[in-house]
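Table S2 (text version). Query chain:
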Amino acid sequence: FHYYCKVAFFNCWVLAMATLLSPIAAFRGRSVENMKLLRAAILPLKHLYGIKMQVRGSEHLNLQEPFVIVCNHQASLDLLGMVEVIPERCVPIAKKELKYMGTVGWACWLSGIIFIDRFRREVAIDVISKTAETVRRENLRVWIFPEGTRNQSKSMLPFKRGAFHLAVQAQVPILPIVISPYWDFFSSKEKRFTSGTCTIQILPKVETQGLSPEDVPELSETVRQAM
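Corresponding C-alpha cell output:
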C-alpha cells in the first residue's frame, strides 16, 4: 500500500508542478533556461521521500565547453539524481511518447527537451545530426540514458550508440555519470519504497576529438566498461 501511495504521489507531484510552471515557461518561450524551473520543482522530492544524495566527482562537471552526459537508467527516481547534478544549459533527450503526456509533455517541450523516435531509425539519426549542430552553436550539454530503457538488474544493458554518434559528430567530450542501485530502499518488483541513500558518481570526461563514426562501437564499449 505504501509503495503505491508513494509512486502515485511522485506522479501527482510531477503533474502538478508541470501544470503550475507551464504558463510561466510559456511566457518565457521555449528555452533550455526553463530547465531551471523543472529542476526547482523536482528537487524538494528527495526531502519528502527521505532520500539522501551523495555526489562524488562533482569537479568533473566544471567544463566550459559543450559535452554529452551518459547515465545509467533504473527508474523514474533517476529524475532525482538528474536534477541533483544537471549542469547549466543542459537538456535531456527523451522518448517521443513523453511529448504527448499532457501538461508534463508541454512543460518538457518548453524546457527544450529533445524528443526522439526510438522506433524510426532514420528519423532518430536526423535528430542526432541536428542536435550535434545545435550543441556546438549554442554551447549546450545533452543528457542521454544510453541503455534506452529502464533497467534494475545488476549490470547495465548494452548501450545504444546515439549518444556516442552525437558526441563524435559534435566533437565534444562524453561525461559518464553513474547512479548507484536503489535496491536498499526502492524496488518496483518487490513493491518497496522507503528512505535511503543514493550515490551519484561523476567520472572524468572522455574526449572524442579526432574520432570518426567508425570509432563509435569501441568508444561506446569503453565508456560502458568504465561505468
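Notes on Table S2: Helices lie at 2-28, 35-42, 45-49, 78-85, 102-110, 121-138, 162-170, 216-226. The domain at 1-226 is CATH 3.40.1130 (Glycerol-3-phosphate (1)-acyltransferase).
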